[in-house]
């Protein structure tokens, strides 16, 4: 018999227990946090998504009666959470992708990575001026990708009101470079 939590007993702590560590992946010195076991248990995933949506709703109530207009998911694991959060928040979902992956008129931003510069893009007509935007991704590490996403959204005249992550690696201090408030479900 499995030792996993029973049908209605999932908490964020039991969701956290499903995250697996893989040392030295994808390269030496990295401790990879694998979130995919959460997706293998629909009750755990439901608990996680409901928690994230509840936090976003609670936060949006502080926006002077405004609501979150768009949920932006960061390429690629932000796409796993963004559409469901958008549905729960009655908002649209918008992807931010790595360069060369989106058609149409695009707005770009670059950010520094360990071994160079990377570029992310958003479709120019996907977010309206003045929209309140929630950015979601699986992991906050150094914050570079999310910071570039904040810059893209500002270029479109919208407001980043919340950055939301499943996991935050606190020792990497990624939150220090982000401008909008941050909600991380699980912190290491």
TrEMBL record:
<dbReference type="InterPro" id="IPR000836">
    <property type="entry name" value="PRTase_dom"/>
</dbReference>
<dbReference type="InterPro" id="IPR050054">
    <property type="entry name" value="UPRTase/APRTase"/>
</dbReference>
<dbReference type="InterPro" id="IPR029057">
    <property type="entry name" value="PRTase-like"/>
</dbReference>
<comment type="pathway">
    <text>Purine metabolism; AMP biosynthesis via salvage pathway; AMP from adenine: step 1/1.</text>
</comment>
<dbReference type="GO" id="GO:0005737">
    <property type="term" value="C:cytoplasm"/>
</dbReference>
<dbReference type="GO" id="GO:0006166">
    <property type="term" value="P:purine ribonucleoside salvage"/>
</dbReference>
<dbReference type="GO" id="GO:0016208">
    <property type="term" value="F:AMP binding"/>
</dbReference>
<comment type="similarity">
    <text>Belongs to the purine/pyrimidine phosphoribosyltransferase family.</text>
</comment>
<dbReference type="GO" id="GO:0006168">
    <property type="term" value="P:adenine salvage"/>
</dbReference>
<keyword id="KW-0328">Glycosyltransferase</keyword>
<dbReference type="GO" id="GO:0002055">
    <property type="term" value="F:adenine binding"/>
</dbReference>
<keyword id="KW-0660">Purine salvage</keyword>
<feature type="domain" description="Phosphoribosyltransferase">
    <location>
        <begin position="52"/>
        <end position="161"/>
    </location>
</feature>
<dbReference type="GO" id="GO:0003999">
    <property type="term" value="F:adenine phosphoribosyltransferase activity"/>
</dbReference>
<keyword id="KW-0808">Transferase</keyword>
<comment type="function">
    <text>Catalyzes a salvage reaction resulting in the formation of AMP, that is energically less costly than de novo synthesis.</text>
</comment>
<keyword id="KW-0963">Cytoplasm</keyword>
<protein>
    <recommendedName>
        <fullName>adenine phosphoribosyltransferase</fullName>
        <ecNumber>2.4.2.7</ecNumber>
    </recommendedName>
</protein>
<dbReference type="InterPro" id="IPR005764">
    <property type="entry name" value="Ade_phspho_trans"/>
</dbReference>
<dbReference type="GO" id="GO:0044209">
    <property type="term" value="P:AMP salvage"/>
</dbReference>
<dbReference type="Pfam" id="PF00156">
    <property type="entry name" value="Pribosyltran"/>
</dbReference>
